[in-house]
Write a structure and sequence with these properties.
single chain, 109 residues, alpha+beta, two-stranded antiparallel ribbon, 4 helices, 55% helix, elongated
Length: 109
Amino acid sequence: MAHKLCLTDNNIPFTIVVSVDFFDYQQILVPLLVYGSEAWTITKALAWRLDTFDTWSLRKILRIPYTRHVTNASVRESTGCRPVSSIIKTRQFCFFGHMEHSDSRQDHH
């Protein structure tokens, strides 16, 4: 199953056909990356490394070589994917909210 994805390279739009790999990325790779991330301490260096791997994976799936000079922002914009560090922050805030609103008499290990 293939899907079309529109990108722009130096303001020249072009369309590529994206295979199932991209959707496997959203269904398999991202959940594996963020599993248990609610309890992580995210430093700037770790967030940078996670986002770097995430963007590298997207570029490999979309077959975008570095010689094409497509910015990371345009790759993210065209795929509609948020950075992994942003997903982790959201999950941490949700987890904190659950802990804050839970019964204080419960034991939370």
